[in-house]
Amino acid sequence: MSERTLLLIEDETHLRQLLARVLELEGYAVLQAPDAHRGLDLLRQHAAEVLVVLSDVKLPDGHGVELLPRYKALAPLAEVILLTAFATVPDGVRAMKLGAFDYLTKGGSDDQLLVAVERATEKARLQRRVLDLEKQVGLQHSFAAMIGTSASFVQAKALAERVAPTDVTVLLEGPTGSGKELFAQAIHQASLRRGKPFVALNCSAFPKDLLESALFGHRQGAFTGALADQKGLLEEARGGTLFLDEIGELDLGAQAKLLRVLETWEYFRVGDTKPRTADVRVVAATNRHLRQEAEAGSFREDLYFRLAVFTVSVPALNARRDDIEPLAAHFTQVFATKLRKRVRGLDAEALRLLRAYDWRGNVRELKNVLERAVLLCDDEVRAECLPPEFELAAGSEAEARADDGRRLYSIEKRHIQLVLREVQGNKTEAARQLGIGLTTLYRKLQEYGLG
Fold it and tell me: Which domains, from first to last, does the chain contain?
């Protein structure tokens, strides 16, 4: 199989063969399918090789936009370009929200198509190279590859390792960016299901009308655009692990259906009356206080207790500050390799600023900061390679140390400055995030000389 493999799903035979020929003349190997069913079969067989999926929107047995989650579930590293004879703005917007690389009108110039395919191919290749590089430096999805020696992190990892070999449902709690999906992947890799699919679904990324279809599948005619029976991610993950991220975003109707799955391991496709059997291990994650929401009635209490059979609290980076230095060194190595930079490590001042910073975005934020720093530096990561707010954080810390009698004043001032910077000076949004009234915020800005 070529290193430039595409999958073309198009029901019009003449057009499919013409497009395939144009792409083959540019050096691509083109797999062809006349409908969604055969296209998904080909993608399942060649997921490791296919870089780009070109799919017609109106197929005889499916709608391209509705099929997007299935394409991405089968080949997460592949890019998807949708082709349509009659482009509509709502379809285009929905396609891009669901992860399409591009949305093109059929009958346009070959050059437009070739440029889009080349860009999508390069993006898919880069994603695969990054994955390979991460594996080389030890970022495999395993507990052994996890970096951290702080007590809270070690305790969370030990709990996850203990539950991993079982089929017990796990609820991962922790702030956004703390690494909950890494824990879910490690649990899967340490389980008896590791040879089967690990399928992740971000419950906050789908509109309500698409989420149930993506999760449970649907029957032909269940709703407008449901042109054929379609599997859901519960079936795509069969035998493996289904990771439900941001589980707190599920609406109450979907919660009731998920509860039935966890209690009976049966479910119905949308619009179907025939029960189906689920064979998955469910790992869920949330950054919300689900127990409190369950007690308040905004989340089903019975579902919460089914999910929380075994709970693992993934600590925020601020709760494992001893791990900042080894994580920073690791990310520096990863991005130096990825960006082909000869960056040896971090100097003492950069490390001091990283340790002093308030990591509201957790490990994900640290990773992003180090990618930027490696890009800007030539030999080692220095303080000037870090974003401006790091100097601000260090200054606030020094101010607090210099006047212990005003320590609360200094911490609050620093926190307001950081929130204002994050919301780009929008005082109404800053007040909302701080949990105070706008009048109170203006008073504090005047008090602290930040007006």
Answer: 5-135 (3.40.50.2300), 143-313 (3.40.50.300), 388-451 (1.10.10.60)
